[in-house]
Amino acid sequence: MNDSAMSLLAVLRHRSVAFLLVVLVAWGGWELFLAMTAPGRVAPALQSALHERAPVAVAITLGFAPENFHIRLFQNYGVVSGVRGTTVLVNRVSPDDLRRIARYYWVQRITPQAESVR
């Protein structure tokens, strides 16, 4: 091997570089997981609304009772109109914001309000 290949190998074996590589792989895996699972959280009934680009009223179901943090976070995406059990009702959510909400791993399902509110 030549000197440049040896020095590159020595740099790659350094603890800091190895740590950064592990962090990058873990972060990339997490982002891939979110990108792959987010579309499955959005109900099929909302798919047409995503293409129309019109704001929608959605019911966001969590796996637990929402806390103040979650409600304040959802207020950044639309108008929170109430909480029913583990579901937060949010009006005027843009399609882009709907996709952002679906990327939160703790969101279980996003449906139109008319379907989930009874």
Total of domains: 2
* Major beta-sheet overview: 4 strands, antiparallel
Kindly report the spatial arrangement of strands forming the biggest sheet.
2-3-1-4
Class based on secondary structure composition and strand pairing: alpha+beta
Radius of gyration: 21 Å
Low-confidence segments: none
The overall pLDDT, averaged over residues, is 87
Q: Under the CATH scheme, which architecture of the largest domain would be assigned?
A: 2-Layer Sandwich
Shape: elongated
Alpha carbon gap, first and last residue: 71 Å
CATH class of the largest domain: Alpha Beta
**If you consult CATH, what is the topology of the largest domain?**
Alpha-Beta Plaits
What is the number of E strands? Answer: 4
Question: Beta-strand percentage?
Answer: 15-25%
Number of helices: 6
Q: Helix and strand succession?
A: HHHEHEEHEH
Percent of residues in helical segments?
A: 40-55%
Question: What report would you give on this structure?
Answer:
The chain is an alpha+beta fold and 118 residues long. The chain folds into two domains: 3-37; 42-116, 2-Layer Sandwich (Alpha-Beta Plaits). Helix content is 53%, strand content 22%. The protein is built from six helices and four strands. It has a four-stranded antiparallel sheet with strand order 2-3-1-4. The longest helix has 27 residues, at 15-41. The radius of gyration is 21 Å and the shape is elongated. The termini are far apart. The mean pLDDT is 87.
